[in-house]
Design a protein that fits this description.
- Helix content is about 50%, strand content about 10%.
- By secondary structure, the chain is mainly α.
- β3 and β4 form a beta hairpin.
- α5 (about 115-135) packs across α6 (about 145-160).
- The protein is extended.
C-alpha cells in the first residue's frame, strides 16, 4: 500500500510538496530507526541536490532575520497582564489585531475595537474547526476518550 501525503490546510505547501517532504521524512525515519528531529531534516536538506533543499532559507543573513522575527513573536506571546477591572487571572498582554500584517496590540486597547473583537471571534471559530479536524480521528481510540469532550465542545463552537 502506498502512503499518500497531503498538505494540511492553512500551510503554504502544495500537495506535491507534501508528497516530496513526506517521502523524504519517511525515508530518513527508516534510515535512522528512530523519530526524526528537526535538526535531522535540516541536515538532509542542506545539500543542493536534496529534494528538500528548496524548502529552507540558506542565506544566513535572511535566515537570521527570520529567526529574530520568530523570537520577537515568542517574546510578544510570553507576556501576560492582570487587568484589575477586567479579569481575575492574568491574560495575554498583547494580542493579534491585524492578521494580514501580524500586528499586535495591548489587550485593553484591542478589546475596545468591535472590529478586532469580531476578528477574534472568527479566529476562535477557525481554531475550533482546526481542533475538530486535527483530533476527530483520535476519538475512536479509547485512550483518547477523556479528551473527546474537548473535541465535541470545539465542534459546537466551530458551528455557531
Amino acid at each position: 500500500m502506498t502512503t499518500t501525503y497531503r498538505a494540511s490546510s492553512g500551510f503554504h505547501l502544495s500537495h506535491k510538496d507534501a508528497e516530496i517532504i513526506g517521502a523524504a521524512f519517511t525515508k530518513l525515519e527508516r534510515k535512522l530507526k528512530r523519530a526524526v528531529h528537526a535538526e535531522d531534516l535540516v541536515g538532509i536538506a542542506r545539500p543542493d541536490t536534496s529534494p528538500l533543499h528548496r524548502y529552507f532559507e540558506w542565506d544566513d543573513t535572511i535566515a537570521a532575520q527570520k529567526y529574530r522575527v520568530s523570537q520577537a513573536r515568542y517574546i510578544i506571546t510570553a507576556i501576560d497582564v492582570l487587568l484589575p477591572d477586567r479579569s481575575e487571572a492574568p491574560v495575554r498582554a498583547f494580542i493579534p489585531v491585524d492578521y494580514g500584517q501580524r500586528s499586535t496590540g495591548f489587550i485593553s486597547t484591542a478589546t475596545a475595537s468591535p472590529e478586532i473583537i469580531a476578528r477574534q471571534v472568527e479566529r476562535a471559530r477557525e481554531d475550533a474547526r482546526s481542533v475538530v479536524e486535527r483530533y476527530q480521528q483520535w476519538i475512536a481510540f479509547s485512550e483518547f476518550a477523556p479528551a473527546a469532550d474537548f473535541v465535541v465542545a470545539a465542534r459546537r463552537l466551530a458551528t455557531t
